[in-house]
Amino acid sequence: MAEGKKLVIVESPTKMRSIQGYLGDGYEVLSSVGHIRDLADKKDIPAADKAAYGKYSIDIDNGFDPYYVVSDRKTKTVAELKRALKTADEVLLATDGDREGEAIAWHLLETLKPKVPVKRMVFHEITKDAIQAAIGNTRELDLALVDAQETRRILDRLYGWDVSPVLWYKVKTGLSAGRVQSAATRMIVERERERMAFVSAEYWDVAATAAGASAFGVRLVRVDGGQLARGTDFDDAGKLKKAVVVLDESKATALAQAVDAAGAGTVTKVEAKPGTRSPYAPFTTSTMQQEAGRKLSMSAKQAMSVAQRLYEKGFITYMRTDSVALSTQAVQAARSQAVALYGDNAVPLKPRVYKSKSKNAQEAHEAIRPSGDNFRKPASVSGELDREELRLYDLIWKRTVASQMSDAKYETTTVTLSVDAAGQNAEFTASGTVYTFKGFLEAYEEGRDEKRADADADSNQSLPAVAVGDELTMSDAEPKGHKTSPKPRFTEASLVKALEERGIGRPSTFASIIGTVIDRGYATKRGQALVPTWMAFSVVRLLEEHFTDLIDYDFTAALEDDLDAIATGEQKRVEWLKSFYFGSDEHTGLRQIVDNLGEIDARALNSTKITDTATLRFGKYGPYLEVIDPAKPDERGRIVNVPEELAPDELTAEKARELIDAPVAGDRVLGTNPENGREIVVKDGRYGPYVQENLPEEPVEADETTGEVIEKPKKKTAKKDAPKPRTGSLFRSMSVETVDLETALQLLSLPRVVGTDPETNDEITAQNGRYGPYLKKGTDSRSLESEQQIFDVTLEQALEIYKQPKYGAGSRRASSALAEFEADPVSGKPIRIRDGRFGAYVTDGETNVTIPRGQKPEDITFEIAVQMLADKRAKGPAPKRGAKKAPAKKTAAKKPAAKKAPAKKAAPKTDEEKAAARSAAAKKAAATRAANAAAKKAAAS
Asked: I need a surface site. Which of 11, 23, 426, 631 has the fewest CB within 10 A?
């Protein structure tokens, strides 16, 4: 890097390339690839600091001082930044403008310790004008924003690390609790509880066809002046909330027959009401996630990933915002485009101004919109974007343009008819809406979530011109039965909306929170709906009973307000953390709650009573029913498997009885093995269906004189040495009900010997495993394409499969990549994402990197893939398994230390002292990691 250049540091490689083109030769733009530091792992903390920082990597007794280290994956990145810094005359920290971005900039400053001037550069769109304007309008680092982000990180560490272990011991290992995550899980579970408690009510009405100049549908609404019941008239217990007429099937059928017999009705009222609809505000992070879910079927995480790419490529403004404001230039761009596309009347006289409903809107200064002063139409950028990027850009573009357009104008006409139905006055109505001016609807109409009363909504139709007193023919009267329905389950879109309405969490974190809820197994997706698991019921029950305040919605929302107060400087970080952790007059601290938990009955916690004799229990291997025999209440109950696909609200008392009374498919006798005469049965076990060859029972000896059975002394046999019956799992294509004896014998014969490799003389076998069918030759295994190949594959075919390379571009699986990118800059080979035996991974044919848990293949961009491969190469090959560590040198025994006088409490550290202490701590951690790495290297050699 030449003398006099300015070093610009961003957090994304894509952002880096985009900005470099706008700044020219006087600047060098480098990427940190996200955060470079985080709270240390326990193993990275030097022995001298473990007493203070060892539990959380936070010194809770000294101002909640965090212990940060540069992650192993970022050492190379930091080294590159430091090299560039040596010849720079100025540093511009150009990370995102929210709290997260401010924290990344602060960590860069703390780690690099530049001796040249440092400025903070902030922008909200990546265009040439915006970047150059940001260069000329830099500022200092906002330490209040850094404090707010650091407080959030410390808060989440304390919450998660204190509460999660309770879940491990009482529910299941590997679970986690979190400030927002647990509240979101509780919302999903509470909705399912409402559905489980719901009692459906039945009501009937009559639909018919009325005809004058043309025919149209009508619906019965009143009988003898009494309002007919609708779904909204019943509560969740199936009881009426007000006095209405409830028809049963027989009464509705009689009315329908009477209407057909009358054959005519008289128009008693024609009411026309004008109305207007206003456009929706431009997208915030939350509303964008909701609409992407409704219209594009994207998960919140996927929507944010696609939006991130659009932003970094310069197509939209910053995507983490809860502001609905548009800049003057953006308003003008939207209005101009609306006029060009839809005419002069498409926009109102004055520009529309939107104000955020969120009191804490502070993440960015503008809504999500197309970047620049002239919006690019979706058709003009289709060649530069992939399919998902184009779909989301089109949605953002339409929403932004529509937000500045005119109101839509419509007129709704309602016609009421009266029919004399066998002496009863039956009133029918029909409604139709006609838009006299579509306005913003020419460009965009917002999607909507499922609602309970949708079945009762009048269908929009075109009505003929009629007048009061007109007589219309009535025909095709038909009774219609309806049942009330429970509240719909949350979708990702509706959950995001509910979280935002309650003020829980930040819109920018909703995607990762929902992702965690699903990844932890607290909810599964059925279509778009989020269905809670029984494990989630156990977790929420534990939190409600023992961590009541921490899972309270108002308390969780108040935490967000407090973090906002820290961000604005109104609240002090250390004082607030002390109050949260140690407690105050207003609330009990986390430390006190954890220290005074008392006994927790895990069995009761994981139990839900379904009937008087059946209890749903959640165990190590999932949910099951325990059925007690009333005649033997003290004996262990019978275990009945619960199908995985059965949602909690579907496990009713009737369904439980059905499962209990169902014939046990397991232990169905298929026949006997002709080779040894042993009985072959099929069973349905905890790990799936399988066939078993039963062992013969030992012959019984009887005393010839008395006829009594002679009991043989039991042999003491170790459990591992006891004879075990042969078993074989059913293939996925097989079922317990249809499997026959011939198939069972084939399964029991596995692994099947295919033949012998003539070159190596190794036996080749075909068998089924945890990850599917495969061939095995010594220690070398190859996947088969179908289960049937286990029985059909020949030796010649097997040898041909082994001739093909196992990994790399030449593999027979080369065409089955989940994603393909350009060539890796180091190896020069194309990068692919594949689905491997142990999960999805990134490869260039030479280096393989497993995609971390919690990340999906679709989230991996080319830049991320390049960085992952580079990090893996930098680590070098993994040490071989079984390598012995070098024996540690023995140290001389130390003499017992003399007792020291109690130390005086140190005075509070200044900010400069804390910074120096952190720097020294980071150096110690680096030295510790270096020593660990050296020990590993020595062990591997």
From this structure: 631
Q: How far apart are CA 183 and CA 567, in angstroms?
A: 23
531 within 8 A of 489, measured Cβ to Cβ: yes
User: By percentage, how much of the chain surpasses pLDDT 90?
Assistant: 50
Handedness of CA 169, 175, 178, 182 (dihedral sign): negative
pLDDT tens digits for range 54-78? 889 999 999 999 999 998 888 999 9
| Cα distances (Å, whole numbers) of residue 395 to 401, 440, 499, 778 | 10, 14, 23, 55
Amino acid at 844: D
Is there a catalytic annotation at residue 318? yes
Identify the pLDDT of residue 902: 43
Q: Which of 535-544, 593-602, 611-620, 830-839 has the lowest mean pLDDT?
A: 830-839
Q: What share of the chain is helix, strand, coil (3-state, %, to 5)?
A: 35, 20, 40
888 contacts: CB under 8 Å, gap ≥ 6: none
Instruction: Note the pLDDT of residue 887.
Output: 44
User: Dihedral (C-alpha) 504, 510, 515, 520: value to the nearest 10 degrees?
Assistant: -10
Residue 583 falls in which region: left (phi positive, over 0), alpha (psi -120 to 50) or beta: left
**CB neighbour class for 436 (10 Å; exposed up to 12, middle 13-18, buried from 19):** exposed
SS (H, E, C) 134-155: HHCCCECCCHHHHHHHHHHHHH
- Sheet strands side by side (includes 819-823): 819-823, 830-836, 839-843, 848-850
Helix (H) or strand (E) holding 288: helix 285-296
Spatial distance between the Cα atoms of 150 and 66, rounded to a whole number of angstroms? 9
| CA gap 913, 909 in Å, rounded | 6
Tens of pLDDT along 318-370? 998 888 989 889 999 999 999 999 999 999 999 999 987 655 554 446 899 99
Max distance between CA atoms of the chain, in angstroms, equals 114
Only one residue has tokens 């009143």, namely: 222
Question: What is the predicted pLDDT for the residue at 852?
Answer: 77
Neighbouring-strand partners of residue 425: 420
Q: How many other CB atoms are found less than 10 A from the CB of residue 643?
A: 10
Q: Which DSSP category does 349 fall into? A: S
pLDDT beyond 80 at 853: no
> Which residues are CB-contacts of 691 (< 8 A; sequence separation ≥ 6)?
670, 680, 681, 682, 683, 727, 728, 730, 739, 744, 747, 748
The one catalytic residue among 68, 159, 203, 318: 318
Percent of the chain past pLDDT 70, that is, above it, reads 85
Integer-rounded Cα radius of gyration of the chain = 35
Q: Nearest to residue 600, comparing CAs of 168, 37, 106?
A: 168
pLDDT band with cut points at 50, 70 and 90 for residue 452: low
Rounded mean pLDDT of the chain? 85
Segment 641-693, tens digit of pLDDT: 888 889 999 999 999 999 888 876 556 788 899 998 898 988 877 667 888 99
Q: Is 356 left (phi over 0), alpha (psi -120 to 50) or beta?
A: beta
Report pTM. 0.71
Among 940, 822, 805, smallest CA distance to 876 is for: 940
Alpha helices in 781-876 (DSSP H): 789-792, 795-803, 862-875
Helices and strands, counts by H and E, the chain: 26, 33
Residues 34 and 11: their CA atoms lie apart, in Å, by 5
Amino acid identity of residue 621, one-letter, is Y
The set of residues, in sequence order, having a beta carbon less than 8 Å from that of 573 and lying 6+ positions away, is 64, 147, 148, 150, 151, 566
Measured from the Cβ of residue 818, the count of other Cβ atoms closer than 10 Å reads 16
CA gap 268, 768 in Å, rounded: 74
Termini Cα distance of the chain: 38
